[in-house]
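User: Some background: our group keeps a shared notebook of sequences we're curious about, and every so often someone picks one and asks for a predicted structure to add to the entry. Today it's my turn. The entry only has the sequence so far, pasted here. Could you supply the structure so I can complete it?
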Amino acid sequence: MKFLSLVILLVISSTTFAGGGGGGGSSPFIPLNPPIIVNIVDGQRIRHMQVIIEIKLVDPANSNKIDLHKGPIRHELILLLSSQEAATISSAMGKEQLRKDALVAIQKVLQDLEGDPIVESLYFTNFIIQ
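Assistant: Of course. Here's the predicted structure to add to the notebook entry:
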């Protein structure tokens, strides 16, 4: 019986932790999940690029607006990312320029839909080309 009680307690606590614990979402950082995977050109070859993006909001209270417009945001990012060439984004400067372009794309979508760009910054937390 003690073992069963311990298992139930662990399940409840891990579920609460995984769900964020009901903390109210005060962080200005929001991951754009799932990762974005696109095809890119590398000479005559087609390669795959996977990026995981995290955005920083001007006001954390706007996190629900990101969820509301996730479709148009991801659409613009997919168009931008899939138009890249591997040689261009292989360097740190190329990645930085792509980061700036992605931020502008997200801000434009949100400006059009919400009347406010909402997003302050964008970060690649994972960037893979295969």
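Suggested note for the entry: Strands lie at 29-42, 45-57, 119-129. The domain at 24-129 is CATH 3.30.479 (Tetrahydropterin Synthase; Chain A).
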